[in-house]
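TEACHING EXERCISE
Course module: macromolecular assemblies
Task: Read the component lines below, then compare them to the predicted structure of the full complex.
Student: A.B.
Group: 4
Components provided:
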Amino acid sequence: MSAAREPLDVAAIVAAIDEVLAAATRPIALHEPRFGGRELDYLGECIRTGWVSSAGAFVDRFEEEIARFTGARHAVLTVNGTAALHVALLAAGVSRDDEVIIPALTFVATANAVQYCGAIPHFADSEERTLGLDPSKLAEHLAQISDVHDGRCINRQTGRRIAAVVPMHTFGHPVDMAPLLDTCRTYGLPVIEDAAESLGSHYHGRHTGTLGRLGVLSFNGNKVVTTGGGGALLTDDPNLARSLRHLTTTAKLPHAWEFRHDEVGYNYRMPNLNAALGCAQLEQLPAFLEAKRALAARYAQALSRITGARFFVEAPGVTSNYWLNALLLDREDTGARDALIEALHKERIHVRPAWTPMPLLPMYRGCPAMDLRTTKSLHARLVNLPSSPHL
Amino acid sequence: MSAAREPLDVAAIVAAIDEVLAAATRPIALHEPRFGGRELDYLGECIRTGWVSSAGAFVDRFEEEIARFTGARHAVLTVNGTAALHVALLAAGVSRDDEVIIPALTFVATANAVQYCGAIPHFADSEERTLGLDPSKLAEHLAQISDVHDGRCINRQTGRRIAAVVPMHTFGHPVDMAPLLDTCRTYGLPVIEDAAESLGSHYHGRHTGTLGRLGVLSFNGNKVVTTGGGGALLTDDPNLARSLRHLTTTAKLPHAWEFRHDEVGYNYRMPNLNAALGCAQLEQLPAFLEAKRALAARYAQALSRITGARFFVEAPGVTSNYWLNALLLDREDTGARDALIEALHKERIHVRPAWTPMPLLPMYRGCPAMDLRTTKSLHARLVNLPSSPHL
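Instructor-supplied answer key:
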C-alpha cells in the first residue's frame, strides 16, 4: 500500500507459482472438482431405485452428514447457495424496503439475494486481516447512522429498517465473528453467515455458518465439494429449520393427496441425484481439506522470498479451508495486478482478481454504503491462485 | 354437472381402474420416472470428465435436442420449471405491480412466479373441453375490464397494467391457442406458455410451448422425462434467448477473469449432471409417449362402461402426452370424489384431485379474477389416475 514498498517483480512471482504447480497438467483451472470416491455407486443407486428428484434417501443422508460435519443441529439442502441465501434472509424476517448489511467485496449472489427479497443491500467495508466484513468499522458505522426504536434498527439517513447483517467468509477465511456478533446483538440484528466458500473453515473451533442465526453453504462446481449445483442452510433453531424446509418446498402443507400451500414458497429443494454426489464428495472432504492446506503451505513457502507481494494466510485462532488461495500485492496498482494475471494466463495458469466491488455494478450503484477504502485497496491488490485439492 | 345424471358408482370405477392396472406392483404411484436407457453411461461421463456443474457438454447437447424435439429455435435450460417461468415473465417485461393473467386451476408455481416479479396474478377460468384457460371467456373479460392506452393494456378496475397472459397446458392437454393468441394480439399482451406438463403435446401440429412468445418446460421427477430437477425456456427470438441465458447465469458479462454483472441476475442454470440425465431420458421420450397414450386408451376403454364419470380425452386437432390421466365425474360432488380417492388409496393406487384453485390459497385470496365457475366445477369433479409410462 505504501509507495515506499518494493515494486512488483512479476517474473519472480510467475516463477514461484510455476514451481509450486510444476507437476500439474496445463491449463490449470482456478478450482476443479475431484471425483475419486463412490460418486458413480451413489448415482447408480439413484437410477436403480428411481429416486432422482426432490425426495429421496440421499437428500436426508446428506442433510444429516452436513449437520454432523458442521456441528449445526439442522441442515436443509437447496438447489444452490443463492437460493439458500434468499430463503435465509426471508426466514430472518427481511422484507421489502428493508436494508441488509453485506460486504462490498463478495460474489454478486450475496447482493442479489437481498434484492430478491425486495430489500436494499447496504455495503460494508472489509478488513485486511480476514478479507471479510470489518467488525469495528461496522460498530462505528452503526453508531453513526442508526437508531434503535422499539427493537428496530433504523438507518437515520434513509429512514429504512436495517434488518440483518450478512458476513461472508471470503475465499474460506473466517470473518472475525466474536466482535461482529456483539455489535449485532447490541443493535438487535440477526446474523446470516454466507459460508458459501468456507465449508471446512472454523472460527475458534466452531464451523463457519454455525455462529449466527443462520448459515449458508454452497456446493457449486468450483467449491471444495460439489453436488453439481447445490447449497445448504444451517441453523440450530428447530422452528427455523421447519420454516426453511417449508419455504424451499413450495410451502405445501403435508397431505396424502391435497395440494394446499399456505404462503408464497419456492422450488428450491436439492434433487436426490445431486445429493448423492454430495454424499460421495463429503466422504473425501477431510482429504481434500488436508491437500488444500498443504498446497497453501507450498504457495506460502514459495512466495515468501517474493518482494512486493505476500501470500494471504489465515488469521490467528481460525482455520481456513483455503478454498481460493490469494496473493496480496503491497501496492494498489491494478496495472501491475493485471500484468501478473496476464503473465500467468500466458503460462496457462488460471488466476483472477477479486470480484468487482458491488457498488461499482450498475444495479447496486447508489445503494447505502460505509467508507469502503479497504475494499477498494483489496480489489486493486488481490489475485486468486489455482487451488484444486489435487494440485 | 346436472342432477339428472347418474350418481357415482365408486365400486365400479375402482374395479375398472384395478383391471387396467392389474399387472402393476402396488403401491402404484401417480407418475414415476423410468430409467431404461443410457442414464448411467452419461452420468459416468460427467464424473470421468469432471464436468458436473453449470457448464458442460450435456447442457449444450440437451438444449439442442430439446430445441430439435419441440421445433423451438432456442432452448435455455434452468434448474426447474419454476425458475424458467420466473425469468420468462421478467424477459417478457413483467414488472412490479403489473398483473399477469393465469388460470386459477394450475400448480402453485405459475402464481408464485408472477409474485417473484412483484406482480399480481389475475385469475382466469378454464374450459371443460381442454381443462385450460378459456379463450372466449378471456376475450369477454378483457373487453369488460380493460382499456388499451398507448399499447398498454390497463385493468380499469385496479388501474394496473396487465402485462402478460400465461396459459397452462393442464395434465398435458393443449389449451385452445389460436383464439387465445388472437385475443392477446388485440390487447398487445405477450403470451408465455406454461408447458411444464406438456412435453410431447402438440396443438394442430405445433409443439406446446412454441406458439407464444416464450414457453416453459419442466423435467421434475414426476414429469414425462426427468433431470432430477430441471426446466427449460423455449423461444424463436434470438435476442430473447440471449437475454434468458444472461438472466439465468447471474447476468455475468463474458470475460476471461473479471467478474462484472450488468443487472440483477439469477443462479438458475441447469447443472451438467442433470442435463446428462435429460439427454438419456430424451432418447426414450418417443417410447414413453407411445406407452402413455396406450395406457390412456386402456383407461378410456375400461371406463367407457362407467356411469357418473368419464375418462378425459384430448380435444380434436390436438395431441396430448397424457401426462396425468384424468377422470371427470358428472356431478360436482366432492364427497363422492373423495370417497373414490380414498377407495383407490385403499387399493394402494395413488390418485389425487386437481390442485386447490389459486384464489382459495391464503396468499392469493383477493387477487383479481374473472368468474371461475368452470374452475370450481372441474376441481369438484376431477381425479388424476396413475400415468407412468411403464404401466
